[in-house]
Amino acid sequence: MAHRSIGGTCTRRALAVVATVVGLETFVTRGVASNRNVPRFYPDDPLQSDCETQDASNVRPWERSKAYDRLLTVTAFGNPGDRRDRRAMNINTLDEVPDSSWFTNRIGRVPMTESEIARGPNREPEPLAGPWTVAGLKLEGATPGLRLEDRSGQLYFIKFNTPDVPAMGTAAEIVTTKIFHALGYNVPENYLVRIRPDEVRIAPEGASRDGGDKSSIVRGDLDRLFAQLTPERDGSYRAVASKAIPGKPLGPFLYAGTRPDDPNDLFPHEHRRELRGLRVFAAWVNHTDARGPNSLDVLIDAGGRRIVRHYLLDFGSTLGASATGAKDAQHGYEYTLEGRPVLRSIRMLGLNVPHWARIDYPGLPAAGRFEAGAFEAEEWKPTFRNPAFVNARPDDTFWAARRVAAFSMEAIAAIVREAKFQDRRTEDYVMGVLVERRRKILRAWLTPINPLIDFAIDRSGVLRFRNAAVDAGVAGPPSRYEVEWFTFDNANGRTAPMRATTSGGRPRLEIPAAVRSSRAPFIM
Predict the structure, then answer these.
(1) What 3-state DSSP class applies to 467?
(2) Distance, CA of 512 to CA of 306 (rounded, Å)
(3) Cβ partners under 8 Å of residue 179, min gap 6
């Protein structure tokens, strides 16, 4: 349910549309209003943007570590948030997600060219080049990194390839960033760059190491960092330069509950459709690390007030990559701690071999462990339980699958080319896996519910609609469509049958004369 601003407050409402389709064995009700004393529809329906009218200047930064996130999702304290089976709370009367500080409708809603999709969020000319000035350095952790400023003073976070694994992590970062931007999420501007040590200088006023040691950086620190990495043939180092996100950083968001000091954060995150539907997109690109620490809230100026904008980031552990090399074999197939497989292994004295351990990968280092043969969309799992993913319903995954279907083969190929894999075989393989996983996602999540979409009545009195599953090639056309008509009272939401039906074998049906001549509003 979306919400509406009335007298400074937001009132929730929904639309009910009931449709039956002969031959599909489905029945869907798109929302039920909880208050019979308010209209179902308003003159400005459907809402295209969310109600975020409150000033959020008092929001303060918070820290949520990876350890805290794991405590919520793995231990006995896990399964946070509201687990009731309920529809997403931020949908409008067309069962869509309005634009908001979380999500902006792009592919599937507005036309996007292949070049626009391949460019993603990037607005700077490419390729970025030095000289660079060090603003910070990280030598600890799974992967070393730098904070560099370009000649204009713009700050970038530099993430290098995993040593001895050419292109793996940086390619994954580039591909997933562009896909998630086209889908509608806020993501950083990520650029593929070549860093040359002789183009990196230390500012005269100095810079500090990131982490606990705040002493000034010296040239030897940079030498130690580059010594951990594998150079390209020309002596440069392949990396992703992630442009600093504008605004005041506030820390990550959680996938359950709301941010208590943000007056615009009204919907529990586990009931936001764009976060529930992220399960589908994460399965497509194997984003096994989709959890709170890989997100960022920022406070920005928006039309004379301040609001919180929500970002997804850190995609170096997507496709077949992880922070330290190729993904572990079970990633995408089991949670890190999952009781049933452990008990099965104990019962069989460790002699059972799970199916994911028998997958035969092609031996392409930059592709890592990324495949489509054993992949089953409904069974895919992130490394740790995600409360929004757990709450995803068939209407949420249907919504998401429609957006996956909007990516053409040409658009997928253009995205993969932007990753600049070092050989054509790897590029073709990664594209092929994305295409096949896309096919399995559409088959799994476009068919469980009524797939009829985009209803419209033209001036000639014909009802037109589309069948998303048929359009995607994952279902054959039904032998017959049948529509029943009802009068509708907007004041109380009551319906009454009109004893009028329409049927036919194509997604365009004549409206019965009794319906056209009626002055009462009607629904299908």
Answers:
(1) strand
(2) 51
(3) 281, 284, 285, 407, 415
- At position 13, the amino acid (one-letter code) is R
In angstroms, the CA 456 to CA 446 distance is 21
Provide DSSP, 282-315.
HHHHT-TT-SGGGEEEEEEEETTEEEEEEEE---
Give the DSSP letter of residue 198: G
Residues contacting 282, CB < 8 A, separation 6+: 288, 290, 380, 382, 389
Q: Among positive and negative, which fits the CA dihedral 40, 41, 42, 48?
A: positive
Compute the chain's Rg from CA coordinates.
25
CA 19/CA 429 separation, integer angstroms = 42
Residue bearing tokens 């204009």: 152
3-state secondary structure of 353: coil
Distance of CA 66 to the CA centre of its chain: 20
Contact 398, 451 (CB under 8 A): yes
Total length of the chain: 524
Is there a contact between 360 and 369 (Cβ–Cβ < 8 Å)? no
Q: How many angstroms separate the Cα of 279 from the Cα of each of 30, 67, 196, 290?
A: 21, 22, 38, 9
Single out the residue of 496, 490, 480, 356 nearest to residue 24, CA to CA: 480
Each residue's pLDDT, cut to its tens digit, for the chain (524 residues) gives 444 433 333 433 333 333 333 333 332 333 334 455 678 888 888 889 998 999 999 999 987 655 655 555 544 345 567 778 899 999 998 999 999 999 999 999 999 999 999 999 999 887 788 899 999 887 666 677 899 999 899 999 999 988 778 799 999 999 999 999 999 999 999 999 999 999 999 877 766 666 555 567 888 889 989 998 889 989 999 999 999 999 999 999 999 999 999 999 999 999 999 999 999 999 999 999 999 999 999 999 998 899 999 999 999 999 999 988 899 999 999 988 665 655 655 566 556 778 899 999 999 999 999 999 999 999 999 999 999 999 999 999 999 999 999 999 999 999 999 999 989 999 999 999 999 999 999 999 999 999 999 999 888 889 999 999 999 999 999 999 999 988 888 888 888 898 888 999 999 999 988 888 876 565 55
**Spatial contact of 237 and 164, defined as CB atoms under 8 Å apart:** no
Q: Which helix (H) or strand (E) holds 6?
A: strand 2-6
Tokens 């658009």, located at residue:
411
Q: Which residue has the tokens 């469980």?
A: 448
Write down the residue that tokens 């907007």 correspond to: 490
The C-alpha angle 365, 281, 177, rounded to 5 degrees, equals: 60
What does the H/E/C string look like for 218-282? Answer: CHHHHHHHHHCCCCCCCCCEEEEEEECCCCEEEECCCCCCCCCCCCCCCCCHHHCHHHHCHHHHH
Q: Which residues of 396-425 are buried (b: 16+ CB within 10 A; e: fewer)?
A: bbbbbbbbbbbbeeebbbbbbebbebeeee
* Residues 431, 504: Cα–Cα separation, whole Å: 39
